[in-house]
Write a structure and sequence with these properties.
homodimer, about 325 residues, alpha/beta, inorganic pyrophosphatase (n-terminal core), Diaminopimelate Epimerase, Chain A, domain 1, 2 domains, six-stranded parallel sheet, six-stranded mixed sheet, 12 strands
Chain lengths: ~325, ~325
């Protein structure tokens, strides 16, 4: 299917002219796909349209405020997606909706072009920035609920304006959303301050098991299924654990070796210059980006780490 | 001494009309006092003025990029301060300069009015926001160095736009500074990502010793001088440790009991609604704000904690 990449103006017109929207999020939903979807849903309803959000997985508890406006009862006729770069990412919704998406709003330069029409801005830190622009183009009022939803997307996708994807426009839109009544203080607290006791226990155990390689330039931590079970961590508790080893002063290569449910070991690697995570992981059949990549091992964790250490030591030499 | 609180226009004129500036920061310098001082110093020099920054304490290593423009050799005749609310906070510089400050730029509503002239905006999240406004009023060019310095002040005083002092204007100024060339990505990394091995070891030990009181609504951690020595933490490594207990899910009262060099115990308390940290600490001769307060004990840590627990349990009941 050919995707028609459209301007803001065409995007706004499409949304104004259609009705009975089903808004899809990606699987393993994060703050951006959810915040974007519920903001758009609320704005469409305020225009007198019917609209619902559908998420392939359960919505993590900390995002429950986004669902406050509930579901409407109607037969959807216009399927749209937000923050979805590939129909594969629709998870359980792929089979039913993967080839039926009429309009997609996204910020991933890697969007595969599965929707009939696409509004994409790859310079945006979050899909929520794109949704904000579409809503402004439509002349939609940014209510406090919509502002909070979009702020959630922007703040979570940028690590609260910390990550390198943050742009001047990100800050300017955040300022507009705060003025429009976004509950930023509470959102920041829930997203960036509060840690579950399970998460804290996991951090304690992870800190207990750091292994340094190459004079402290590489740090390796191991997360077993036993640790996950004993700490009671769910997937949202595990967010950011893979970022921990590279945060250590002096560490250029941070590695997290995490046991999967099937007993295989998933390696997440984060690097700083000049080390290429994708190149290292490719040696083990994996891949990814230059600063964040991954691979998998079917052997024991010790054997996997021994292989990783050998390659890393060679590089650091 | 009466302080003359002046407008932006008068502040800018004062700086334009005088010369040979000595810019004072507060003791135990943070990113805001340093970023504000070095930004202002650089801008004054670019106007052809002589200017130096003087700091009562050693500048923490992570801020060393702010000192890149070095010192000038001249006899100062105009003393100004940035981010200093009280001459007591000048530390070792108080005796020499405490009553000689001609102009102060500050954002603390509690500024005691020690300078002859004061430009104060208590709604600003950081003194760096006030300095930015003064520089704009003077028509100063915001160079990449000045932008990085001011961004440092704003980002560090707001916990990277996370704390409740962050305003729409904070974000708008951040956007302007990014456009002017602030090295925000590296600053965010150094200020908010990198943790020293000492800091990590301290976190590990702190997580090892959490005591919960009142069904998990209160968490208490203890930091001894032995822990500080063994982990090799310096004062900047200890930043934010007092915030850890209140970050735990369900905790309404977070308490850090920290041994001072003289063997006494300093208590830092952080609370959420409805608990008043200042009121609790006042029972032990301390005080502070409603959400963050402190007190001290001369007895053993165990005895101090027993007294705190008794009061906290009574409140939580």
């Amino acid at each position: 299917m050919m995707t028609d990449q459209v301007t803001l103006n065409v995007a706004a017109r499409f949304l104004s002219e259609n009705d009975k929207y089903l808004i899809l999020t990606h699987a393993h939903p994060d703050g951006d796909t959810l915040g974007s979807a519920f903001a758009l849903c609320s704005a469409l309803r305020r225009m007198g349209k019917k609209a619902n959000v559908i998420c392939p997985d359960e919505i993590p508890k900390k995002f429950s405020y986004l669902t406050a406006e509930g579901n409407q009862d109607f037969e959807p006729s216009t399927v749209i997606s937000v923050d979805v770069a590939d129909p594969k990412l629709l998870g359980e919704l792929q089979e039913e909706y993967g080839n039926k998406v009429q309009f997609a709003i996204d910020h991933h330069g890697t969007n595969v072009g599965f929707a009939k029409m696409l509004y994409l801005d790859a310079k945006s830190a979050a899909a929520a920035e794109c949704v904000y622009r579409v809503l402004k183009e439509m002349g939609a009022e940014i209510t406090p609920f919509i502002a909070s939803s979009l702020y959630t997307g922007i703040a979570t996708d940028t690590g609260c304006f910390k990550f390198s994807n943050t742009t001047p426009d990100t800050h300017i839109i955040a300022a507009e959303l705060m003025k429009a009544g976004a509950d930023y203080d509470e959102i920041n607290r829930v997203m960036f301050e509060v840690k579950s006791r399970g998460r804290l226990e996991m951090e304690r155990r992870v800190l207990d098991c750091i292994e340094y390689v190459g004079d402290g330039q590489c740090a390796i931590v191991t997360v077993t299924q036993k640790m996950i079970k004993e700490t009671g961590c769910d997937s949202s508790d595990m967010d950011g654990i893979a970022a921990l080893p590279r945060q250590i002063e002096g560490v250029k290569i941070g590695i997290t070796v995490r046991e999967k449910v099937d007993g295989r070991w998933k390696v997440s690697m984060r690097t700083f210059e000049p080390y290429d995570a994708a190149a290292i992981c490719q040696k083990f059949g994996g891949g990814g980006h230059i600063r964040a990549a991954g691979c998998e091992f079917g052997c024991s964790a010790d054997e996997a780490k021994a292989q990783l250490k050998a390659v890393v030591l060679e590089l650091l030499r």
